[in-house]
Amino acid sequence: MGLYSFCSCGSQVMPIGHQHRRVEFPQLYGRRERGVAFELLNQRPCPIKISASRTPESVDFEERTSPNEVRKEIQQCYNLIRRLGRGVVYLGSSRMGPDHKHYVQALELGKEIAKLLDCTSWSGAGPGLMDAATKGALEAGKPVGGFKIGQEAGEWTASNFHPYLPSETYLTCRFFSARKHGLVDAVVRGSSSDKTAVVALPGGIGTLDEVFEILALIQLERIGSALPVPFLLMNYDSFYAKLLDFLDDCEHWGTVSKGEVGSLWKVCDSNSEALTYLSEFYDLPLQSEPGLQFGVTTVSGTS
Prior knowledge:
The protein is of the alpha/beta class. The protein contains 8 helices and 12 strands.
């Protein structure tokens, strides 16, 4: 008589057949002899291939785990940057639509920075504030590029295609790691003629993930840039006030050095403050008085 148990090994399930064999070990207790018997199992591995059903939304694990596929997509990101040129990368919420005042501010900022630095504007090519910065740069008549992902704001997108950008200006990424490589490489400065920046607009978990990853690369001098890259945190309506308080607490607890975080970025409460900072950083004249060209009522220190 036998039985079967199962063990897994990668994508295979291994049923193992067992056969019973009785072995006895004599023991002496005083003058009487007793025996203890054990049932030993002879194991016979019987490998078989078991396949699981796959829905359209499921993940192809062979593809996801292939380093060659990830490497290929990273190279595609680099090729797109080489073709369109490095510039300003915008990070921000995909949920703040055209009816949100931060959308209007981000659109105006994207337009004015594109004119000031005369460079390509990059983003995640998604909706919300990424879309605002993209449209602003297009209104300025400057090039735009993007690294799109198949999911934004918790919803699966209906298509891998952008609603209005030409297909040659963006890449739809399957791998977040490749997308992040692209967003970082787009701001690398190889010479003084490169005018780049990272602009962090208000956002949620995805935005904060990108913000702190890039900030850590700058902190550790691993961003790969020969020259400093300005990092602007747009604190519209004190959006990031509690985050900044938390980072101050980190100084108190000793997890970051005093003044360390402040040395890595510039916190800006308004568009005019951001434009002034960039013009001074790159020694460029402002085309008009900051804050007057936006046509947006100033509220809580924001343009």
